[in-house]
């Protein structure tokens, strides 16, 4: 938190917030020159004057995270929000989770909307989705606004049951400038970043371009090869009656995963190890846990072009966007799948160049002789394998085969490819009705995307020496395409009565989802996942100087995910879209040196769809066509309070505080889930609070932030509460020498006191939280 926050507001902040609110301030704000980066103050933490809860990041929340950290971590201190990632740098999507008011984004479910500069992110799921960290580099992040519950009616997302998170990028500055940044941290972490601000490149047109590369290992075995290369560019052109903005980003990421643990006993036995290994042993059963074989590879290319226009009394914002996502998820099954009946002629699956498409597994091949013939274990041999998953039988144990037996294994890829194109149009008309101002808003979102997915099995070239694999698969298990077409349209009217501002609105989704099975056309499916008309209403009323009360209601909706159609055995007629009725009641207070908010919320969530993973304590079902399946499992009832306060104690010292009390319970759960009515929702903490102190004096700045997270349920066991603290210390020196405008040095230490805890929690498992991690950043502007 910045103690001088109330003394200055940049025009850019007004512009961004107006764009998200859809108010007529947008056109006026966007007609002004862009603010320089060092002129940007911040969005007020306690939120905009709207009829629903919303909070936004401020500068100190960005400082509490290193420049290597993903943009997701910057919102962790906001009320109601819990972010957990496998390590401090957020370099593993597999172990990442976001929780708000009992709604989650994790491996199991996607129930929170996510947008980038107001544009839909294309789903947040692991299997082909993309969270905001795939689109934005930390150094290019302007601010993040979180609408915890009812959210704005114009929010674009298939997943916005529990509100929307909007990540915004910085606008170009008006002066030419080069910024170079280097970050070095523990666990072999390093990042190089550069951004060039062009200044005015044409009449009233400004731009920037940036590039970065980073890498780090894991904090457990120190063997992961996590890399990320990112490029982005943005321009803004201010014309007489139109502003045009363009943005493009490219992100290429390779992540080696962290593994979940499945019991408190496992955590107590080894609280700093997830049972993935760092050394290749040559025994396939053990090497299925080799960390470099548990990988996520993704490339994302995203671009949009937006125009803000004024036609008389009507302001119009329109954009078009395009997104391509491709990559894969890896596992290392400890066998070759026998998919072709070769009789006594050996196994053609072991011969390079042979690829079989579709069909069913005839069996598994574990060890072969020099001629490629499958071997069987010695009769009555008892396996001595005890790791992983409690050990394997004789078919996996090399001691149960002749000394010259050759182990064989697979490198399994789940390959993803998705392309999206879409348009957004919003119009705002302000008119006078007597002495009252009336604002009519309307808009639409159309998106057409197609996701392709196939499962390929590659032979490991020699399982005795390493995990290098044959690029030509011996089996493509399945191949499917998932076309999805979305149309969302809305209308909202807001009238200022003087004593209060009232709004009422309605929106609707039309979503068509299809599965095309390229191997077995008879397994193709299609479903309409349309919503009912979704109503919203709200009121904001000032009650005294600096104090306002608000109330809001919204019917939220999430479409059936295309992943639900992956299994041909799914009874799609029994799966319904998820819905949630959200109510917010609250009060906000803003004065010269303090701002605060208090919100009560109540949520009724129906038709909850959850993902049941194929990876569990007993091992992985590698042969299942799904890594899990989706089912409707009843609903959730949530209520609670959220408190936020930002207080400038002096002009140098500031205090930020947030508190969340959340009660989220399952209602009428399906018997197959193992949950009972009234049981706490998995991964949802009942209590959380944050206390942050930030100090700025002359060139120096420092801060200490502490967060408490209460107990959470993992279904079969309870996860203890934990407390973590983050610390930063830095200095900014202006014009240290000729040619350098400023130098910024900052040390960041996350989990300062090295707390041991469980982070992301899902049904039946949890990931171990990251230890104390330090990073040093040096940034210079020329």
Summary keywords:
782 residues, mainly beta, 22-stranded antiparallel barrel, five-stranded mixed beta sheet, 5 helices, 44 strands, disordered N terminus
Mean pLDDT: 89
Describe the largest sheet: 22 strands, antiparallel, barrel
Uncertain regions spanning at least 5 consecutive residues: 1-43
Continuous helix count: 5
Strand coverage percent: over 45%
End-to-end separation: 27 Å
Radius of gyration: 27 Å
**How many β-strand runs?**
44
Q: How does the helix and strand content classify structurally?
A: mainly beta
The coarse overall form would be globular
Helix content: under 10%
Question: How would you characterize the overall build of this protein?
Answer:
With 782 residues, the protein is mostly beta strands. The chain has five helices and 44 strands. It has a 22-stranded antiparallel beta barrel. A hairpin with a 2-residue loop joins strand 26 and strand 27. The relative contact order is 0.14.
Structure, briefly:
The protein is mainly β. Helices cover about 5% and strands about 50% of the residues. Mean pLDDT is about 90; it is low at about 1-45.
List the helices and strands and how they pair.
Elements (H helix, E strand, L loop, with lengths): L10 H11 L3 H6 L24 E2 L2 H5 L17 E4 L12 E4 L2 E3 L7 E4 L2 E2 L20 E7 L16 E6 L6 E10 L3 E14 L2 E12 L9 E13 L3 E15 L7 H6 L14 H4 L7 E17 L2 E18 L4 E3 L17 E2 L5 E3 L1 E2 L37 E2 L2 E24 L2 E24 L15 E22 L4 E17 L7 E4 L5 E11 L2 E12 L19 E13 L3 E13 L2 E5 L1 E2 L2 E2 L7 E5 L2 E14 L4 E15 L19 E11 L2 E10 L2 E2 L4 E2 L2 E13 L7 E9 L7 E5 L2 E4 L4 E9 L1
Parallel strand pairs: 5-8, 17-23
Antiparallel strand pairs: 1-7, 2-3, 3-4, 5-6, 7-8, 9-10, 9-44, 10-11, 11-12, 12-13, 13-14, 14-15, 15-21, 16-18, 19-20, 21-22, 22-23, 23-24, 24-25, 24-26, 26-27, 27-28, 28-29, 29-34, 30-33, 31-32, 34-35, 35-36, 36-37, 37-40, 38-39, 40-41, 41-44, 42-43
